[in-house]
User: Which sequence fits this backbone?
């Protein structure tokens, strides 16, 4: 049985790959470097088979869990780390980090405009239910973008207030149209915060960015990084969970919020999943490279079809997300249908927009993944609102990611003349 891909898309795909030789080589270079970092860290910590056995119940004395904390701390060059299956997603982990760093009367500043949609309810900027930071008397300000770029001067002014005790920097673009931030740019923002408010904790939402570059935000001044294990660092094998790495007091504060004061990190069984977390982390630099190659191939193929992309296919990447501006709701549906048809799971399903929890408009999602919601696996999603931009991410293997993109392009060609 063969996938239904016409000659036009096959020819354009071959041209796209020819155009991307230098870009693929750049991605492979970073992957080799990060693989060496991970392997060296595993060897330094003398990872052994005994770490892969899990715990049940309270999870006391889980040597593999505790050693993985140390490995993450080393990889991110931080004092401490917390890697737990009990985090239900990245938003949950960021929430624990924020509540751990802030107290009633403090102010949180978002450095690059509004954060990702699901965090608006956490902050209290949108009514999503009880228990927000605002409900606990924590203030919030955001520094709006200027021409879709960080406002450095505005950030300096916003953090000057001594009541500002935490600054949130979102590395990825989320559903905004700005470019994702490079580690260098994050370092520049950290320097601005530090010079104007040395006491403010700098927290970086690192989702989609791990192992894309040779450095992480904690290498350039961030106090804490947070990310989901079913994105980059889980390597496609982690079944759930998230990590927090950074300053010891901030990690401890987040741990107390995840469980409760007095217990913190001491509890949390792993139920036999340690092997997947270790192996996923070991695979992560390679898997991220596969997702990056899928993204740049997808960008180039869509450019050859006449669509605008961000970043463009020749740009140096700072996360695994690829924006494709489609311009109409019908094209968004068709693109997502094509991506879904290229999935190994639920390929026969047709995605439809729905009222997804945490979002202020309907969202369409295409994802036939082995791990539910794992966006390191090939997926595409879009808020059903103007400018009707789809966000592509993931790809466990470049070969399968390429086929998924070709099927999406094939589906789009039925509508490209509209």
Assistant:
């Amino acid at each position: 049985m063969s996938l239904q891909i016409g000659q036009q898309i096959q020819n354009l795909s071959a041209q796209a790959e020819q155009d991307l030789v230098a870009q693929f080589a750049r991605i492979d270079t970073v992957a080799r470097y990060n693989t060496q970092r991970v392997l060296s860290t595993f060897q330094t910590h003398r990872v052994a088979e005994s770490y892969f056995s899990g715990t049940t119940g309270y999870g006391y004395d889980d040597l593999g869990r505790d050693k993985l904390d140390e490995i993450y701390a080393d990889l991110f060059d931080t004092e401490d780390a917390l890697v737990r299956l009990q985090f239900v997603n990245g938003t949950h982990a960021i929430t624990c980090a924020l509540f751990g760093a802030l107290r009633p009367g403090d102010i949180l500043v978002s450095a690059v405009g509004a954060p990702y949609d699901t965090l608006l309810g956490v902050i209290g900027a949108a009514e999503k239910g009880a228990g927000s930071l605002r409900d606990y008397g924590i203030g919030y300000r955001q520094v709006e973008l200027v021409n879709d770029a960080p406002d450095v001067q505005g950030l300096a002014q916003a953090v000057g207030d001594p009541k500002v005790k935490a600054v949130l920097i979102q590395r990825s673009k989320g559903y905004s149209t700005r470019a994702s931030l490079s580690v260098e740019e994050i370092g520049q923002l950290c320097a601005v915060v530090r010079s104007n408010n040395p006491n403010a904790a700098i927290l970086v939402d690192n989702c989609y960015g791990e192992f894309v570059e040779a450095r992480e935000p904690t290498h350039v001044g961030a106090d804490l990084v947070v990310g989901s294990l079913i994105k980059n660092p889980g390597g496609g094998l982690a079944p759930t969970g998230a990590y927090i790495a950074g300053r010891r007091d901030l990690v401890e504060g987040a741990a107390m919020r995840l469980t409760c004061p007095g217990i913190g990190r001491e509890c949390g069984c792993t139920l036999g999943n340690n092997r997947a977390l270790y192996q996923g982390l070991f695979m992560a630099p390679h898997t991220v490279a596969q997702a990056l190659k899928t993204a740049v191939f997808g960008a180039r193929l869509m450019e050859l079809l006449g669509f605008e992309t961000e970043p463009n296919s020749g740009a140096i990447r700072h996360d695994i997300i690829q924006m494709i501006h489609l311009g109409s709701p019908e094209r968004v549906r068709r693109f997502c249908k094509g991506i879904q048809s290229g999935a190994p799971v639920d390929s026969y399903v047709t995605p439809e927009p729905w009222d997804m929890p945490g979002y202020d408009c309907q969202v369409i999602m295409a994802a036939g993944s082995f791990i539910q919601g794992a966006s390191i696996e090939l997926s595409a999603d879009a808020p059903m609102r103007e400018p009707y931009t789809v966000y592509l991410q993931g790809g466990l293997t470049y070969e399968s990611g390429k086929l998924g993109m070709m099927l999406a392009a094939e589906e789009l060609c039925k509508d490209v003349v509209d």
